[in-house]
Amino acid sequence: MGRxxxxxxxxxxxxxxxxxxxxxxxxxxxxSTRPEDRVFRDAKGNPLPEAVQEQLREHFRKNPEALRxxxxxxxxEPGEIVVSGTRPRGSxxxxxxxxxxxxxxxIRAYGTSTIEELLDALAPQLASNRGRGDNPPVTLLNxxxxxxFSEIARIPTEAIERTExxxxxxxxxxxxxxxxxxVNIITFERFDSQFGQVSVIGATxxxxxxxxxxxxxxxxxxxxxxxxxxxxxxxxxxxESERELAQPSAMPDRGDLRxxxxxxxxxxxxxxxxxxLGGTISGILSAKFEHGETRSLLGREAGIAAGALERDIGxxxxxxxxxxxxxxxxxxxxxxxxxxxADTTIIAKMAGPAASERTGSLAKTYDAxxxxxxxxxxxxxxxxxxxxxxxxxxxxxxxxxxxxxxNISANDLSRRIxxxxxxxxxxxxxxxxxxxxxxxxxxxxxxSLSDTDDLRTLGYGVVWSPVKAIGIVASLTHEQGAxxxxxxxxxxxxxxxxxxxxxxxxxVVDILRLSGGNSDLVNDQRDVFRFGFNxxxxxxxxxxxxxxxxxxxxxxxxxxxxTALPQVEAAFPDRFARENDGRLSLIDARPVNFANxxxxxxxxxxxxTRPLGPVPAGMQPANGLNFTSIEEAQRAMPNATxxxxxxxxxxxxxxxNLRSRFFANLYHNWYLEDRVTLRDGLPTLDxxxxxxxxxxxxxRRHEVEFQVxxxxxxxxxxxxxxxxxxxxxxSGPNGDLRFASLGTVNLNLFxxxxxxAGGPNAxxxxxxxxxxxxxxxxxxxxxxxxxxxxxxxxxxxPANLDPLGRTVSFNLRKVF
Length: 816
Known about the structure:
It contains ten helices and 43 strands. β10 and β11 (224-235) form a beta hairpin.
């Protein structure tokens, strides 16, 4: 086995962040000091290991200029080198501290390939109690706003130097709403690689498989960037008969004509070019094209003896983005522009001689914005940070539905938007005082829409850190929101044979379900209160405890149409159709406004990370980077000084510990209240006590997410566990349903084959290769639902709710 390589620069710790990166020393010894008398320390004053000291002394004997001090600092002892630093490269423009920070070794321990996969693996730590739906976190690159997430989604994780997670309040400084966490991803200043990946996945119950192939090239050197990527995925379908689902007695063979999972195919290609434009200005152009197809079987058409209804969906999406970044004195500015075009065609093919139904839609969006953020003034307690962003957007949406040559419906909608947002962060106290650091923040936003009333946002809050290890945030936001053009004008789509549980009669029926847009939707009004607590209770230990309480009240909330409860039918009687005998035959499931809703939720979590084995002072867990060869290290950090460790030596073992990781995190969502009033004057639906908005049951009061993983010597494992408590739907004597608690376990095992097969001495075809074995739903659990008699309704058969069950995947990735 070859030598193990370290970087001097990675052992020099920034006094600002406690992390180590490739920074040049800013202080040094007197040049008359003899090399053998020099003592190398980190920023905390800890001497580096003696084996490292010896290699550094020898290196600087041969290269005395490398230790020439940039400046002298009073009070330093002669013969010592102390490394300090300013704010690290890529930092955000704010004094708000990060809730979590991951260095290159932390990231490597998750076994992910791209930024998109990394954020998915970190999802429990990035979740927010605020926002409209399950929106992804706000993502920054090197402290700058990006034009679109697709610009960075496929950047390889090997190119990431560190990743920081900030509370929602930081989003205001970048012109976003304060409703999602902020993730700042900092890449190495120089990186160049090509990599390919193939993945296969299949269900252990059989009947379904999927395969994916990707190829990527990514290169970065300062503000110069280039990337090109392509991906192809093909997946099979799953028939109801392949899961042996029971069918209605009148249609025993219908399972051969209905898909639980559609067949699908997708191809995408994208690229990016970025370069300096002169002075402090740099620009980026990005493009991405996606084509997707799916085919579903919807069962037999009424009156046709053979064949099945088919639904084919084709989508072509084009995204173009541009961003220009610059600096004006102490202010940073960012201009972004995006264009997106999505063309969707849906064809329902009839089994008989009747004409096919065709639905098409074309959505086009163009937006542009300009952001300035920086210090407006310097106050006794710190800088008065301000951000102002203005933007314009044009949205067009056209849709039509035809049957043969007859046009059934058509919509052509357009929206013009002008927006401005201002946020201020006012420091009141510094952390030098007995009360700790304290600041106030406020934000004001206005959107002018051409097709509806103006939208206003007002928010204010306080951030207090009584000691450096504790952060407290309290905020209140008043926000208005408008329905999207798709919610207003999506084409009418008729889906026959949708299996539905009719709670009024306690029976399962196949109905005609209508979907599409609703032009009668109105704006909503959202009020959100948040109190957050974040603490690192043990010094020099990566242990974080967080608690978040959020209360959300919404007037006129916009929602997809709820399930067929008697209370829902009483509130929206015109959305249901029944036959003469009372049998349910149709539901119009286009979106609606409810009267109001109120939810209170408490989310707490614990996160712990540490190396696997002892690490001496001066080689702290955050300080290590891993390279398979000297050449790779020099490409990533050309100014670093490289030291080596012989295999089996104490330094080598310490280096292995340094690069290893054990991590565990636990999060608990506790819903304290969740209720909805469908219409004014009607009873409230309590989603925690028998009410429901969808057929999967009411709100689960408790949700628990647990993640644990380890990585050392090229081997890694990660396990994700998710558990939900039980729930029920109460709808009277005929239709009560009980949903049992549900737990799932996912397991990922991976191996860096080159490192396991000799490291630098491994065969060239093994270097940079990683194999990953994954098992999703390891225990094969599926939702369990029972009615009042203890029976399983046909619509709630376990395989109907989770068609795939346990799946096994294998992934092979090669970095060139």
